[in-house]
Every structure is written in structure tokens, then in C-alpha cells.
Design goal:
Helices cover about 80% and strands about 0% of the residues. It is an all-alpha fold. It has one domain: Na+/H+ antiporter like fold, CATH 1.20.1530. The C terminus is likely disordered.
């Protein structure tokens, strides 16, 4: 593991802190807000371009992983989110709804990057993304109505924008890059000039996206800093419980190392950018709901960076050749 990979959790935290500080400067926050989505798109394109499309088809041979991930994300997690909100945020209905919006939305952007960093199965991870995205947006009003007390209706434009911008656009660009580079330069040239350099871009782009996200929301964090403290206990419980459950199930089900990583990441990572957009659209007069979604990444991103190192399969040491007998 390189030094950059070993220190990635520290760099993610530093990028978040630097973003919070920079966002307090005049005009920085609004400008940073426009940089979040482009940084995510370029970052995901760099991840997708390294992925062989043939690997996505392996999802058909990973039915156990897919089934368990769906149960964790859409049955167990909503129940846990309700219990955490009711037990720890009972007197704060807006924070409860914000926590619910955050926890019931599985990630469709950061997750793939951290899965790749942890040497998970990126093909299965990519195949899970559209399923997670569509299910979370279809079920979100149901979850909030049943568990939060008020429905957050999601319009078709939000769904279309999320699918097209966050998934389809970078995937299409990556496929075109892979095809064109192999067609005109050959597979070896593509590895040397496209996929190799792309692998070195992912971490810097991740730090840039984290910096921009926190700079964008810096003033909201400052204005509601006391409210963020109430969110820390349920967030810590969630981000400790889900990785433990996912890794435990992986052992029980005897999943391969890369699939165990994929299950752990999809069960842990949350979709705060999309959840934040939905909260702003559905609850424009209740800023504390959005505050919960800003607080989430403060805990989530350092946890994912650390988790990527903890669950990463270790590469076997090269075998030492036996000495020849004289």
C-alpha cells in the first residue's frame, strides 16, 4: 500500500476541515457549490474507465451478495434509522427526518470510489448503483411517511438528474475513452496512457470533491453547530454497526474477499448529496433537516476512508523460489 493510500483517511479529514475554513471566506461557498458535481463526475469517470465492462456481468453470479445488500439497505437500515431517531432524537423532529433521509439512501457516488480503493469488486458495485438509486428514491416517501411522520415527495426531475448526471454521464464517457484508446492505440497503450493515469487521479479528485462539499455548506454548519452535536451519537452508532454486521455476514456466507469489501461498502456508505438535494426541495422551510445531511459526511467520509484500509484484502506475498539441489 502506498503512503498516499495509508494516509487517505487523514487527507479526507483535512480536506473537509480546509473546506469548512475556506467556506467562511466571502463568495467561496457559492463557487464551491458549483464545483461539487463536476468533481464527482470526473472522479467517477476516472473510476469507471479502469473497469472492464465484462466484470459488470459477474453480478449474475453474485445473487447472494445482491440479496443481502438489498436487505441491509432497504429493510434493516430503515428500521435502525427509526430506532436511532426515536431513541436519541425524540425531541427533535427535524433532525430525526434529516437523519432518516441520510441513512435510508445508499450511496451512488463515493461508494464506488472507496470500493475501488479497498480492492472490492467494482463490476458488481457498479451494477448495484442504479438498483440502489431507483429503489431509494421510490421508497423514500414511504420511509419518511411511515417512520418520520411526513412524506418527502420526490419529483421526476430529481430522479432523472440523479441518474443521468451521477451515473450515466461518467459511465458513458468512460466507455468511450476505453473504446477509443483501445481502437486507436491498442490495449497496452490504453493501460499506459488512460487507465494507469486515471488510477492516480481518483484520490486527488476525491479530496477536491470533499473540499468543495464542505466549503459549500460551511456557513450552515457554523450557524447550527450546536445541533450537530446531537447528531453525533446516532451517526457513530450507525457507522460502527453497519460495517460490523456486513463483515460478519460476509464471513458467515463465505463471500470472497472482494465481494465482502463490496458488501461492507454498500451497506455503510450513504448518499448525502442526493439526500441533501431532496431535503432542500421537499422541506425548504426547515433548515435543520438539511443540517443533518451536512453533518453526515463529517462522520461518514473519514469512516469510509479508514474502512477502505481496514477491509482491504492483503495481496499475497510473492512465493520465494526453492533453491535448486546441487
Amino acid at each position: 500500500m502506498s503512503t498516499a493510500e495509508r494516509l487517505q483517511s487523514l487527507f479526507v479529514a483535512l480536506a473537509a476541515l480546509a473546506g469548512l475554513a475556506a467556506g467562511l471566506l466571502p463568495h467561496v461557498g457559492p463557487v464551491a457549490g458549483h464545483a461539487v458535481l463536476p468533481a464527482l463526475l470526473v472522479m467517477l469517470t476516472a473510476v469507471f474507465v479502469q473497469m472492464d465492462a465484462a466484470h459488470v456481468g459477474e453480478v449474475h453470479h453474485a445473487k447472494t451478495l445482491v440479496a443481502v445488500s438489498l436487505v441491509l439497505n432497504f429493510v434493516f437500515t430503515p428500521a435502525l434509522a427509526w430506532a436511532l431517531g426515536a431513541g436519541l432524537l425524540g425531541g427533535e423532529p427535524d433532525l430525526r427526518i434529516g437523519l432518516l433521509l441520510l441513512l435510508v439512501t445508499p450511496c451512488t457516488d463515493w461508494y464506488l470510489v472507496f470500493t475501488a480503493m479497498a480492492r472490492g469488486h467494482t463490476g458488481i458495485a457498479a451494477a448495484l448503483l442504479p438498483v440502489n438509486l431507483v429503489l431509494q428514491l421510490l421508497l423514500l416517501p414511504v420511509y419518511v411517511l411511515l417512520l418520520g411522520g411526513r412524506a418527502a415527495m420526490v419529483d421526476g426531475a430529481t430522479l432523472a438528474e440523479s441518474v443521468l448526471l451521477v451515473l450515466v454521464v461518467p459511465l458513458t464517457l468512460a466507455m468511450l475513452l476505453r473504446w477509443a484508446s483501445a481502437r486507436f492505440g491498442g490495449a497496452a497503450w490504453r493501460e499506459r496512457r488512460v487507465t494507469g493515469p486515471a488510477s492516480h487521479l481518483v484520490l486527488p479528485l476525491l479530496y477536491a470533491a470533499v473540499f468543495a462539499m464542505f466549503a459549500w455548506q460551511s456557513r450552515m454548519v457554523l450557524e447550527h453547530g450546536a445541533d450537530l452535536l446531537a447528531l453525533l451519537p446516532p451517526l457513530v452508532v450507525f457507522f460502527v454497526t453497519l460495517p460490523l454486521i456486513a463483515t460478519g455476514l460476509s464471513r458467515v456466507l463465505r463471500l470472497s474477499a472482494d465481494r465482502a469489501v463490496t458488501l461492507t461498502m454498500t451497506a455503510t456508505a450513504r448518499n448525502s448529496p442526493i439526500a441533501l438535494a431532496i431535503a432542500v426541495a421537499a422541506f425548504p422551510d426547515r433548515p435543520l433537516i438539511a443540517v443533518a445531511l451536512v453533518a453526515g459526511p463529517l462522520v461518514e467520509l473519514p469512516v469510509l476512508a479508514l474502512l477502505a484500509q481496514l477491509v482491504r484484502p492483503r495481496r499475497p506475498a510473492p512465493a520465494t523460489p526453492e533453491p535448486h539441489s546441487p
